[in-house]
Amino acid sequence: MGSALMFARSGRGAGASFGGAARRGGADEVGRDFAQAARNAPYLERADEQELALAWRERRDEDALHALARAHLRLVMAVATRYRRYGLPLSDLIQEGNVGMLEAAARFEPAREVRFSTYASWWIRAAIQDYVLRNWSIVRGGTSSGQKALFFNLRRIRARLAQRGGAPGPTFYDDLARALGANRSDVERMDARLSAPDLSLNAPIAAGEGREDAERVDFLVDSAPTPDVVVEDALDSDRRRAALRDALATLAPRERRIVERRRLTEDPDTLETLGVELGVSKERVRQLEARALDKLRAAMSPA
Length: 303
Description:
3 domains; Rna Polymerase Sigma Factor, Chain: A
């Protein structure tokens, strides 16, 4: 098969095929090779397409698989070109489109009587969209089908609404959300991602106020308590436990038993249960509990 299609079989990602060629300075040459291979690829009639698909599906004829995919290199280029606005190299988009086309060729079922180009276009577009999402930002996003659709449709719908209504008004995001069938909050977050570049926390900020070496991370607010607050809370907790222990020691045994069983356990007993154990009425237990709590408050109050 042609050399351009072989690139797509060699691997995915930034380190393989077209992407690697781009870093070596050969992106233009690779692009020209692929364009030439696409122009020279033969068109297939429906009968020829069905024959190649059957040869692969029934006999695992790899030559037939490659011939079927090679004949649709123009489709890969056409789809990849539509995603150039996302700022990624066209050669990389073509590479991912090739991967999607080979996946489509391997899964194509000729018995469904659907043209291969119709079936493959979905796989090509899905492969390219996944690549765009993986490389648009260092922050992982667009993982669900809804977020993915929002990512690729937001810019188009936003431009259309802006043309109709001029400058965005107070209901702009509500209009976007209705047009996209999404929540307003999701639309706002995705629009912010599309509108602003990634910023490193270690990027230097503008010089001034004697902080020429300051970085963004230096101005992040830490919501965790400071060490002195942690130590102070620990000391206060120890003091409260010691004060409670001393206050409990001032209670009569029956009063202490009631307080511990009613107030100092995750599964407190009822007044009736304690009344049966102590041989008194539950009203008497309530009175003893109230008196014990008054004694504890008095013992633990500052002098």
